[in-house]
Amino acid sequence: MKKLGIFYLCAVVLFASACSVFPSKNTDAGLPSVTTTAVNVTISYAEDNSSTVPVIVDKGASAFDALQKLTTDNSMPLDFNQSDFGVMINGINGVMSDNVEGKYWLWYVNGSMGSTACDQYVVEEGDAIEFEYGAGF
User: Fold this and answer.
1) Of the candidates 45, 73, 60, 59, the residue with the CA atom closest to the CA atom of residue 130
2) Consecutive sets of 10 residues in the chain, 137 residues long: mean pLDDT of each?
3) Is the pTM for the entire model greater than 0.70?
4) Cα angle 74-78-82, degrees, rounded to a multiple of 5
5) Is-contact 97 105, C-beta < 8 A?
6) 100 vs 92: CA distance, rounded Å
7) CATH value at residue 91
8) Scanning 13, 37, 117, 131, which has its CA 20 to 30 A from the CA of 87?
9) Rounded distance between C-alpha atoms, residue 103 and residue 132, angstroms
10) Is residue 86 a part of any domain in this protein?
């Protein structure tokens, strides 16, 4: 009887140590993580000449990244300068800023003028990003 008790004790110890060597399965394994963000990008050349396009960018992308993706995917030239303050858009699809007429590319997020350079704003799911050609501030 004593031998049988020792056998059961050894079996329990072996089972317990095997469970600690093989961790339990993660129930989240296999679920895709969200790595992209969907936004709508509008390019407005004038009140009656604008288009809005849904754009999918990597999570953590900027408004400028979304604009670059849109222009690249649609073979539209994009002219910009990088400065210490951030990216300044000079032209989209051949429409260039005009210092004489005081028209520039301004950008908005969800209807409000961007408070930073467009490359410094991280887009969020569903954001409405607009690049508008018009009179400056």
Assistant:
1) 45
2) 46 46 50 83 89 96 98 97 96 95 96 96 98 85
3) yes
4) 140
5) yes
6) 18
7) 2.170.130.30
8) 37
9) 10
10) yes
